[in-house]
User: Which sequence fits this backbone?
């Protein structure tokens, strides 16, 4: 590996961009590897799963770049600044940085002071420093920030190149007006609503975008009364992005009935979607479903959608679906013909989804349904994970039949099965299944039935874990088992 040239190494290290452990190991190989790893490691040094409030080395490197005058001022304020026993660093680390994450930086800054005013001063100097040192910014997380970054002298030059923004609506509208003026080519926008009232700055930010490919909105607030509709402006602003938007994740906490009309009208216009995730029940008419066509759709999840409506969307997709992640809470109380609906749903999947990797499925465990389910397993060769929920049944016979079908026809890529309510497996049928699975890759099983925590089952499961037939076997709540 050491004879690989710098360009090749750089491309390899880019693949490990979010794997700090691997990148840090690469630093130790030789000088060439170290020099090539550093730019990748420092492109977004805030993205790693580590405890930043204990990372004195990061704090030392960042504060090293502060001017002597600023350091003197901060020390007078009784802010702790580390003493570095050398004049220069081995690398100009911050020159590789392409991101600012306010949440992580505030964790690091807490090393220097716990005083709120001093924290504010230190934040101000470090944000200003990053604006000067980072040649261009691609990622910005400004959740709950108190500093208007776009007022720094270099902000316009740095922020014009911004590709991804994560923010929340606790920030004043004026903040977003400032960003909307500068940042017009954001490709990925993630918004957390912290308040139910309308943030008109967020609406303006969305309206000003010219290449928005990914939009995600989620709620994080207590139920409140509201005067203006909290989502209408955002949804209508998104209409302007219909020609470019590829990924829509919309998980609101509370939607008024009339809002469903707006969501439906917007969805009909997004023909280029690759991801469609909506955490709400959206009633569609037959006419609306016919024009709800997504030829590039890869991920599909709408909560509480009927199987018939989902079947139509799947049939109108372009054959690229990789994830069908529907939730089936209390489905049997919504619809009477689940046996017919699930049969049709399974057929639509195996006729239209050859690339499918993740599937959640509710079904009536009849002989006909099991025959069609086996056809699905044979047709979807890429299937990696199955979530199965049987309706109106809780018998071991159905579970035994299902396990035999999985042994006969499960694709070689299948690595995980989630069983949610309605299926039971005896010790004997489970052991027979494990024995027959021996020549396949290790399987993870998750179930909402806590009976498998009983001693006899635990003993059996541990036996096949030790033999590496089973990678993992967990019992958890039904809600946690959904994707």
Assistant:
């Amino acid at each position: 590996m050491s004879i690989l040239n710098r360009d090749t190494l750089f491309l390899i290290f880019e693949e490990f961009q979010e794997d700090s452990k691997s990148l840090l190991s690469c630093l130790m190989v030789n000088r060439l590897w170290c020099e090539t790893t550093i730019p990748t490691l420092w492109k977004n040094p805030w993205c790693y799963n580590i405890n930043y409030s204990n990372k004195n080395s990061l704090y030392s490197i960042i504060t090293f770049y502060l001017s002597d005058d600023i350091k003197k001022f901060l020390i007078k304020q009784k802010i702790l600044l580390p003493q570095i026993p050398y004049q220069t660093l081995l690398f100009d680390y911050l020159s590789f940085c392409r991101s600012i994450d306010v949440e992580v930086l505030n964790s690091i800054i807490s090393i220097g002071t716990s005083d709120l005013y001093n924290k504010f001063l230190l934040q101000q100097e470090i944000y200003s420093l990053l604006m000067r040192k980072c040649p261009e910014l691609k990622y910005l997380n400004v959740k709950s920030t108190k500093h208007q970054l776009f007022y720094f002298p270099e902000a316009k030059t740095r922020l014009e190149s911004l590709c991804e923004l994560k923010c929340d609506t606790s920030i004043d509208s004026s903040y977003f007006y400032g960003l909307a003026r500068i940042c017009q080519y954001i490709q990925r926008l993630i918004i957390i609503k912290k308040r139910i009232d309308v943030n008109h700055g967020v609406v303006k930010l969305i309206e000003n975008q010219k290449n928005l490919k990914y939009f995600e909105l989620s709620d994080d607030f207590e139920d409140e009364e509201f005067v203006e509709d909290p989502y209408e402006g955002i949804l209508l602003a998104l209409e302007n992005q219909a020609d470019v938007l590829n990924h829509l994740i919309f998980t609101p906490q509370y939607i008024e009935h009339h809002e469903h009309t707006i969501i439906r009208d917007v969805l009909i216009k997004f023909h280029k979607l690759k991801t469609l995730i909506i955490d709400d029940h959206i009633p569609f008419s037959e006419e609306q479903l016919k024009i709800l066509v997504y030829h590039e759709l890869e991920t599909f999840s709408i909560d509480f959608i009927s199987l018939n409506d989902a079947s139509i969307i799947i049939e109108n997709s372009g054959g690229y679906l990789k994830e069908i992640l529907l939730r089936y809470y209390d489905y049997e109380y919504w619809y009477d013909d689940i046996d017919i609906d699930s049969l049709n749903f399974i057929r639509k999947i195996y006729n239209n989804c050859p690339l499918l990797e993740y599937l959640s499925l509710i079904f009536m465990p009849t002989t006909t349904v099991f025959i069609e389910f086996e056809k699905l397993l044979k047709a979807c060769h890429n299937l990696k994970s199955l979530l199965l929920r049987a309706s109106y049944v809780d018998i071991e016979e159905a579970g035994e039949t299902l396990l035999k079908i999985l042994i006969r026809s499960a694709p070689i890529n299948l690595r995980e099965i989630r069983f949610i309510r309605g299926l039971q497996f005896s010790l004997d049928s489970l052991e027979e299944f494990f024995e027959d699975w021996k020549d396949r890759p290790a399987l993870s099983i998750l179930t909402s039935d806590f009976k498998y925590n009983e001693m006899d089952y635990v003993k059996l499961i541990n036996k096949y874990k030790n033999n590496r037939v089973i990678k993992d076997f967990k019992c958890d709540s039904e809600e946690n088992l959904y994707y």
